[in-house]
Amino acid sequence: MAELGWRHHALIQTLLSRGPLKEQEFHTVFAGVTGKNPASHLQLFNECLLKINKVLDFVQLELRACMNQYDGNIYYGVVNNVSDEQSKIGTKFSVPQIAFYKAVIEAIIQDERNQGCITSIEALNVRLESQVEDGHALQEKQSRVPTAFRSFSISQKEKTLNDLVREQWLCSTSDGKIGLGVRSFLDLRSWFRDNDVLSCDVCNEAAIKAEQCSKDGCPIRMHSYCLKKKFYSRKAGRVCPGCRTQWDCSEYVVELEEPTEMPPQSNQVTEGPMTRNRRSSKSESVAAGDCNPAPKKRLKTCKAEIADDELLKLIPAHPAGMRSRRSSRN
To answer: Are 245 and 215 in contact (CB under 8 A)?
Structure first.
């Protein structure tokens, strides 16, 4: 097993003590301890994270990156790769609080609006009984509900909700609703797949906050930032990749590249060596007082310049050499 140096320890300790960090913040920490900017030393950055993960894998931890689906920012954090009774001992949340958290996550994922969030009222009204294992009759299931679940009051739910938001397991969106936090995106990647949560057609990550195809029954979903990448160019067909239904992405793709138009060729001539010399001599004559050239003569001169430039493409001669040939002909 590879040994880690103090720089690796500093990166791990920073994430463990401060929690998930935005990409720019983590890059700043990396530059501070290594003296290298990850933007210009990407290979060194990736090799450092790979070495850290080889050691963390021994204790079933992982330094992982994820995309926050609400703001499109990348975050880094250290996560636990196993879910067993021993790992649950390390949490400061009680069993009813964990059940409440799971119930809120399920409510967010199952929301028909597919916006990845629910209101605070909807979060407080989730039922912890839904976290009791199925496979039993309703009456038997009610008897199996722990007393702590039944006595979990609204005030306790409200306090737990605030704690989960503060610890970044949940988040408060810009419109005051409750969504998944960065830690949930980091830790629950395998849980999303095991529970058949639909994934984004572009990045293959769980489509918690995503847009879905307008055709009924089509399962295709894409994140807003993935839509921008996929439909940024007008050359890309803005249709559903599954059913080919027209996809309305005007709300997300604000700036699109217009088709490139070739500039008019009549007044734009590629400058060769002779052309630049003539323009230089013309500038000198204008400065000397010749400010009224005849338009018709100028038009002929332009045609002559075009002909000369086409000739220069075939004969790579030095400007001085061209002048000497003209002098000999004259």
So the answer is: yes
Percent of the chain with pLDDT over 90: 37
Residues 221 and 307 in one domain: no
- Residue 317's CB: how many other CB atoms inside 10 A? 15
The parent domain of residue 234 ranges over 213-258
Q: Say if 293 falls within a structural domain.
A: no
As for how many domains the chain has, the answer is 4
| Residue at 142 is within a domain | yes
SS percent in the chain: helix, strand, coil, step 5 = 50, 10, 40
Which token pair is 240? 């559903």
| Statement to judge: residues 39 and 75 lie in one domain | yes
pLDDT digits (tens, 9 = 90+) for 116-133: 899 999 999 998 877 776
pLDDT tens for 159-198 read 999 999 999 999 998 888 999 999 999 999 888 988 888 8
The CATH number assigned to the domain holding 60 equals 3.90.1150.220
* Residue with the two structure tokens 């890059």: 27
CA distance 150 to 99: 12
Instruction: Give the three-class secondary structure for 249.
Output: coil
Residues 29, 37: Cα–Cα separation, whole Å: 10
This prediction has a pTM of 0.68
Tell me if 296 is assigned to some domain. Answer: no
Contacts of 305 (CB under 8 A, 6+ apart): 269, 274, 275, 278
